[in-house]
């Protein structure tokens, strides 16, 4: 029993030290499993060879595009740079270098899941057999040959990805201006900065929310008119005032009325 806590501790240390590697590995496993489930549930190769050709290719290519676009759209770092980029203050706009760096770094990171999906699809060979076979619904020597070619293409694709990825990584590492320890320090600093920023924002938001809630219940239960006002949704972009909620807006208007009275 004593070995289990030690194993869990070692596993936790591994996750803490290599979170990106663990996340990528998990995404690869999920994409491989998702491809098999998707194939068994949704894929039915038609008997018409002409239709089957496009049907198989569509099932092979369409998920790659969807996974790539979804991966980029869900990447927080991309929106951290691009969100509100068209309405930035003067002097705070993005440079062409920043735009390209953010886009392409997110693009290449988002290729992991589509590449895993493509490798599993080629290794299985079902989509290729459906697309290229003369009689895709029957198991023949031709279908076995096509499946073998598909599997070979899958392994060649994987080897090519590994070679290119390793080469690019080595070139970037060897040509880096900062040392390994400097990069590690920057990584640690960004993590601590994010934690401290979240902590400070929570403290500030909690303080502001308490003031607004106390203002709402300053005289027992509010009347229906007040409930109606604090229920109406507020879109912060609709006004120059920084109102984060209907209660925040109502509380601020109440303060202005009291100060002008």
Automatic annotation (TrEMBL):
It comes from the Eukaryota. Keywords: Ion channel, Ion transport, Membrane, Transmembrane, Transmembrane helix, Transport. Pfam families: Ca_hom_mod. It is found in: Membrane. GO terms for molecular function: monoatomic cation channel activity. InterPro entries: CALHM (IPR029569). The chain crosses the membrane at residues 15-33, 54-74, 111-132, 152-169. One of its GO terms (cellular component) is plasma membrane. It is a multi-pass membrane protein. GO terms for biological process: ATP export. Belongs to the CALHM family. This is Uncharacterized protein.
């Amino acid at each position: 029993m004593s070995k289990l806590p030690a194993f869990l501790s070692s596993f936790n240390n591994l996750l803490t030290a290599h979170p990106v590697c663990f996340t990528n590995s998990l995404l690869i496993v999920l994409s491989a499993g998702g491809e098999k489930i998707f194939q068994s549930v949704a894929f039915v190769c038609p008997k018409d060879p002409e239709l089957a050709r496009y049907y198989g290719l569509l099932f092979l290519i369409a998920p790659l595009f969807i996974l790539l676009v979804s991966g980029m759209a869900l990447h927080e770092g991309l929106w951290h740079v691009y969100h509100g980029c068209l309405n930035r203050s003067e002097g705070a706009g993005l440079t062409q270098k920043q735009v390209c760096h953010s886009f392409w770094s997110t693009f290449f990171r988002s290729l992991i899941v589509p590449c895993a999906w493509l490798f599993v699809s080629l290794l299985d060979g079902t989509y290729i057999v459906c697309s290229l076979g003369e009689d895709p619904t029957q198991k023949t020597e031709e279908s076995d040959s096509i499946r073998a070619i598909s599997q070979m293409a899958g392994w060649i694709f994987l080897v090519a990805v590994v070679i290119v990825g390793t080469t690019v990584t080595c070139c970037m590492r060897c040509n880096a201006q900062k040392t390994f320890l400097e990069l590690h320090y920057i990584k640690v600093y960004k993590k601590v900065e994010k934690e401290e920023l979240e902590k400070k924002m929570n403290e500030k938001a909690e303080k502001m929310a308490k003031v607004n809630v106390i203002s709402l219940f300053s005289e027992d239960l509010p009347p229906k008119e007040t409930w109606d006002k604090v229920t109406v949704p507020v879109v912060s972009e609709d006004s120059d005032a920084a109102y984060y909620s209907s209660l925040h807006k109502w509380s601020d208007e109440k303060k202005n009325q009291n100060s002008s009275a």
